[in-house]
Amino acid sequence: MYSPNHISRMTKEETSEVEEAHGNKSLYLYPPFYYIIISIIAFTFFDPNDPACMEILTDPRTTIPELFAIIRQWVPQVQHKIDIIGTEILKRGCHVNDRDGLTDMTLLHYCCKAGAHGVGDPEAALRLSNQLLALGADVSLRSRWTNMNALHYAAYFDVPELIRVLLKGSKPKVLNSTCSDFYHGTALHIAASNLCLGAVKCLLEHGANPTVRNDKGQEPAEVVPDPMDMSLDKAEAAMVAKELKQLLLDAVPLSCSLPRATLPNYDNIPGNLMLSSLGLKLGDRVVLDETKTGTLRFCGTTEFASGQWVGIELDEPEGKNDGSVVRYFHCLPKYGVFAPPSRVHGCNVCLCSSSSPVSQPKRNFNAMRSPKDITSESSISRYACVPQITYPFGCSCESKMFPVLQD
């Protein structure tokens, strides 16, 4: 794979060391992975601007895993060429939703990361993302390591240019989707906590809900770092934090049918009234965090935390408990889980064929309303049967994982 000129740049001592390490066998008997290790002697990172590296990049013998190993290098030289590297990966037969075996990230995930100002290049990332979306890239796919979808990555790396493109065809699907790695906060929470002013403005312009609360009960405005806690050398960041918090606070009344001060507080409402106001009852089938399905077994206050909580018996053993110290409902071990009511809703998905790809249930983060409004016009629906099909890492039947290749 590497040219003889490339190998000839090694010294005699370096060549003998490699031969000794690999049993004095010919270099060409080893897969390309070993040649990439050798190249580190000449380069500390892969630089597509170097003619030798560009020759490797465009060589048809360079495999998809090797190209993913290149794309993982977080240096400007690589990230500024994301569109070229991504195109080379697609040319070798990679499906638009296939994943890197090491990070479980798709090309669209890498695009959103490569759009970061400074290290990345938003224009190059935008070119590749448009190409991927035209080929049918799924914006809702998540990396199993971070549980982040493409919108979460774009918010985290503050790339409003990509946020606009991602939301064009999938706004209802991902706009207010939550991420467990950020206490089940939305993309707005992620952007706010990282002082990503451009991303926050863009998300609000596209209708992101500034009243959604994470697992800690915080709205996006409440996760903005406090400027008073910042040192003097971070004066610029403190100014951004102040502007960001005010922006989010000003957005709250615009998204609610009631003034913020009069929003309903459900903490002291009995569990049965809470469920009734949401159009649910014990025994109903529900969805938790868009991915887990189960049966509603409990609703009310608990001893482990303040506020209202619901207890769900999951269909799969993915839970932690049923309140084993103080038992709130009965289920098999590892099938019980507790969650705030805001993270649970009824299901409206019914799959009759086990061969069909599973689509993630959609969450509806409408503006908060009074119990009367919710009862009369509930945004919560149920489903008749629960999809039991799961694919590893959230892949569709068309996507596949590429083997791990170390950087």
UniProtKB/TrEMBL annotation:
The keyword Transport does not apply. Keywords: ANK repeat, Membrane, Transmembrane, Transmembrane helix. The chain crosses the membrane at residues 27-46. Pfam families: Ank_2, CAP_GLY. It comes from the Eukaryota. This is CAP-Gly domain-containing linker protein 3-like. It comes from Sinocyclocheilus anshuiensis. One of its GO terms (molecular function) is microtubule plus-end binding. Residues 300-340 form the CAP-Gly domain. GO terms for biological process: cytoplasmic microtubule organization. The gene is LOC107685098. Signal peptide: none annotated. One of its GO terms (cellular component) is cell cortex. ANK repeats lie at residues 183-215.
